Amino acid sequence: MSILYIGKAREYGGEQPYCGGILKFRLPFIHYGLDVQSMAQGAILSCTHFGALVVMQQVLGIPENVALFMVAVNGAYYLWHTSFGDPGIAGWITAGIPLYITYLSAYAPGVDRVLALIAFQTLVAAFFVVLGVTGLAKWVIQHFPISLRSGILLAAGMASLERIFHPKQPFFSQYPISFTIALLASFFILFSTKALIYRKKHNWFKWMAGWGIVPGYVVGYVVGVIAGEVTVPTMAQLSEKFFISAPIGEMISTLTPFGIGWPGAEAWIAGFSMALVAYILAFGDMLVLQALTKEVNDYQPDEFVLYDPTRNHLITAWRNILEIFTMPYIVLSGPIWAGASAVVANRAMHSDRKELDSYWSAANSFNLGALVLFCSPIVLILLPAKIIGFGITLALQGYLCVYIAYDMCTNNVQRGIAGTMAGCIIAGNFVHISPILSGPTLGLITGVVLWAILAPEDDSPHILEKGKKAAETES
């Protein structure tokens, strides 16, 4: 239920009231009411944020208290989007996480690795600024070959799955029972054809499935406690303090340009292709957001929710820039968290106006729910199963990337180029020929050369679209 909305009513079919221009600023109670269910969903799904904590500890060697504060601040940064008129629930550039890990792992642990991350994330922010403001983003995606796009997605998916099943990783080695059950439950709920039938037949299953990966995480947590793989905090630990610690000084001095300086030329050159890969993966997420927004508008014609790619680019760039100067973030700041955005869209589409006064009530309330990450007792309860939550995220991301990569190819030449390019991206990071010839660079070069020699003329998306329209006209 939306509570305490005392603002101006909107016109039928118009936008929810706001202040400002392209950045449409909205405040709770004044421009929308808080939505209790969306806030609860945001609080529970914030457990997935701990995946970033695991990565930062493993790859960057960051102390847990520092990494935990970074995770909480990153969650708070999501409010930049929904508070300033961008309808998406923001997130990471998730599909590339395994690629970022293998790329950064080629650098020496410590300062060198952090400097490589600073260069890489700065270049990602630059891509969002330049391509968003100039409008080149649409042209790039329209002309970027399908085989190369598929190769990047396939590399991300395979790298993700390789990490899950690697014997040195903690997923199956430390949590064999709880992680296996959590993973199977998540895959069944999200991808099984039987689950689709159960959704139609049983309201309780439909309700549970609407929480995304949360049921799998909860099942894994409970099984982990029973099997002795997850340790629940004591009451003494839970009552020790209410807020998490805020080691801002340590974070700034050890991780930012203010404390360790700026990267050298090699890190900038090597990071360029990795940043390009990250941006291409992020653009796919933007297309998802555009489709979700259209669906919301179709279901609820009394309110118009506007998705503006330029605004989305600018806010995403701003989040990356903020993190560069406060806490370089290995999973990056992306334009959308697809799963959470789908949850919010579903809430907006299937609620009447007595339950939800506006789309923005659901979107902003969801992001406000993630602020529980600053609350120490809640964090202590969720933290013991952080590996389970991160593992589910990696496995589902790998599955999605692989089948989307194969699905977008229309012939065996494209599939061959994509597979060879993906293998080169992954293997290149492990071999690490030189700081400049990184895995993404070798993979992109390999893909471009093969595409130039082998690819058919219809390998670009805009050419395929013209062909479809011509066929429709003839028929």
Explained architecture:
With 475 residues, the protein is mainly α. Helices cover 68% and strands 1% of the residues. It is built from 25 helices and two strands. It has helices at 36-45, 50-60, 64-77, 79-83, 97-105, 111-134, 136-143, 146-165, 170-174, 176-191, 193-201, 203-209, 214-227, 235-238, 248-255, 257-260, 265-299, 309-326, 338-349, 359-369, 376-382, 386-408, 412-431, 439-454, 461-474; strands spanning 2-3, 34-35. Strands 1-2 form a two-stranded antiparallel sheet. Helix 6 (111-134) packs across helix 17, helix 6 (111-134) runs antiparallel to helix 18 and helix 8 packs across helix 23. The protein is globular, with a radius of gyration of 22 Å. The relative contact order is 0.21. Mean pLDDT is 83; it is low at 466-475.
Give the topology:
Elements: E1 2-3, E2 34-35, H1 36-45, H2 50-60, H3 64-77, H4 79-83, H5 97-105, H6 111-134, H7 136-143, H8 146-165, H9 170-174, H10 176-191, H11 193-201, H12 203-209, H13 214-227, H14 235-238, H15 248-255, H16 257-260, H17 265-299, H18 309-326, H19 338-349, H20 359-369, H21 376-382, H22 386-408, H23 412-431, H24 439-454, H25 461-474
Helix pairs in contact: 1-19, 1-20, 2-3, 2-22, 5-8, 5-23, 6-17, 6-18, 8-22, 8-23, 10-11, 10-13, 10-22, 11-12, 17-19, 17-24, 19-20, 23-24
